[in-house]
Amino acid sequence: MRHWLQSILVLTLLNNGCATTTPPDYTNFRQHMPKSILVLPPINHSIEVSAGGTYLSTISHPIAERGFYVFPVAIVDAFFKDQGLSEPAEIHQIPAEKLREIFGADAVFYVSIHQWGSKYHLIQSKTKVVAKGKLVDLKTEKILWQGTQIGESASNSSGGNLTSALVAAAVTQMVNSSTDESRAVAQHSAFRTIHGHNGFLKGPVGKRNHKK
Amino acid sequence: MVHSNNQTMNIRSYLFIILILTQACATREDHYYWGDYEKTIYESFKGQQGSDPQIQVAKLSQLIRQAKSLEKPVPPGIYAQLGYAYYRSGKTQAAREAMELEKKHHPSSTAFVNRLLGSMRNKK
Q: Is residue A205 part of a domain?
């Protein structure tokens, strides 16, 4: 009985903390370790119009803290619009060489959003964010990393929140507005995706011994 | 006796596993000072009141001040974003100065910031 309980405890911890699937191949990432990453406006397949901008507002923090320079997402977005490119699908077609020339970036992060927002059921609402990302080296056009970001939270209408194991506890303290909830779910799952087991390798920028 | 020894061992090894797990997934301390950055950028995309360049200038300047007082580095993109907000509110000189600081603190930004500075000159 005791062993049984202990095994369950360990299994729960494993499931909560770091879910594992087949580990990705980091050979290209190691060989072409970027210093700077350009995150392009995401292609939005969800029904939430503002998903792209909200996603962009959440992604700089985890990537920069992983050790990379991240180009300012809002300026990049405005820059493309200024050039007459407001459709992310068009932006994703720009040749790697051109992106390198304009931004001086080492790698580009292509993102597509597949689910975004809350669904209301009789007694509870569920918020889900699903985005696929692909990091590509701008010199060799090799894929350095790809993965899927999945974030989920559920809250019941009685006011108490039931958060799925995937989402950190802080989410439960969010206000009930569904856009804020989506943003919080996106923030937490972005961190888990970039910093987690199968996430980005650690980058070279902003070493911890930084002194000013 | 043997039995209790075994149990101690078992508990020890479980504790060890738990220790490793909690270390691997511990909350990390940020290298940069982020303040309200994510909310500020979110509002700039939302295009509501918070996207007003003067409000953006105020919020980003405050973030930079707080970072300095905490002796933490300013994250990538903040100085550039501040420069862009200055530019949108017609303060070209302040815009240029902030853009230069982005280059100074984050040399990877140089090519893009120079491009932005160039387009600011052309539009003037």
A: no
Give the residue numbers spanning the domain of A56.
Answer: 24-195
Chain A residue at shortest CA distance from B84: A75
B30, B96, B94: which is closest to B58 by C-alpha?
Answer: B94
3-state secondary structure at position A212: coil
Closest CB to A58 among B38, B78, B80: B38
Q: Is A10 among the domain residues?
A: no
Find the CATH number of the domain harbouring A59: 3.40.50.10610
Interchain CB contacts (distance < 8 Å): A and B: 114
Residue A6 lies in a domain: no
Residue A19 in domain: no
Domains of chain B: 29-123 (1.25.40)
Q: Please state the domain count of chain A.
A: 1
Q: Are B44 and B70 in contact (CB under 8 A)?
A: no
Write out chain B residues lying below 8 Å of A9, CB-based.
14
CA atoms of B10 and B6, how far apart (whole Å): 6
Q: Chain B residue closest to A3 (CA)?
A: B10
What digits encode the pLDDT tens for the residues A51-71?
Answer: 999 999 999 999 999 999 999
> Which tokens go with A158?
């009685």
Question: What digits encode the pLDDT tens for the residues B105-118?
Answer: 999 999 999 999 99
ipTM: 0.79
Which of A60, A104, A208 is closest, CB to CB, to B111? A104
Q: Model pTM?
A: 0.80
CA distance B110 to B117: 10
